[in-house]
Amino acid sequence: EDKVVQSPLSLVVHEGDTVTLNCSYEVTNFRSLLWYKQEKKAPTFLFMLTSSGIEKKSGRLSSILDKKELFSILNITATQTGDSAVYLCAANSGGSNYKLTFGKGTLLTVNP
Amino acid sequence: DAGITQSPRHKVTETGTPVTLRCHQTENHRYMYWYRQDPGHGLRLIHYSYGVKDTDKGEVSDGYSVSRSKTEDFLLTLESATSSQTSVYFCAIRSDTSSYEQYFGPGTRLTVT
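Output (structure tokens, whole complex):
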């Protein structure tokens, strides 16, 4: 059975802090690892990672994948209150229909 | 934003009644997915479609059926709603290119009393 585990489940930080969110996965015929941000509405796409060791970056957010150790991290530097959200990690398994298996998410709260 | 709408956005229904949720897309994407999201469980796949009239089950398909008679519409039906089906339901789409990312609709909050 495909499995994605995120840690921590929740995290409270102060504005300006740097945070690291973790995602480990066990899926059949792994293809890619995706990160989403969810703020009381639909998840919005952040990154997709397919290759080990290549960092994806968007502003203060960055992510990297380790396919040997089967994990990914999402870093957020200089956090802002607007970063408060649930961050979801999902692994894409092989096959033609590209199903995603999601982790339970990390609830990040950034206090002013 | 991807052109995905869901209807209704909110619904309250009674146990035992049938319910149909609609997902409509304007992107002409081949793949469509239905998820439910519950506290402590994250997003779980109910059913998905890989083309008109082509559907398959996800990990939590019991009690649900789907239909896709047109590319743009994917319907999720609860034949006889139960309280355990109270949840937020999200539809997602994916293009038929090599990219794997899915884009989500706004969600439907369903309460079964």
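The CA atoms of residues 11 and 100 of chain B lie 31 Å apart.
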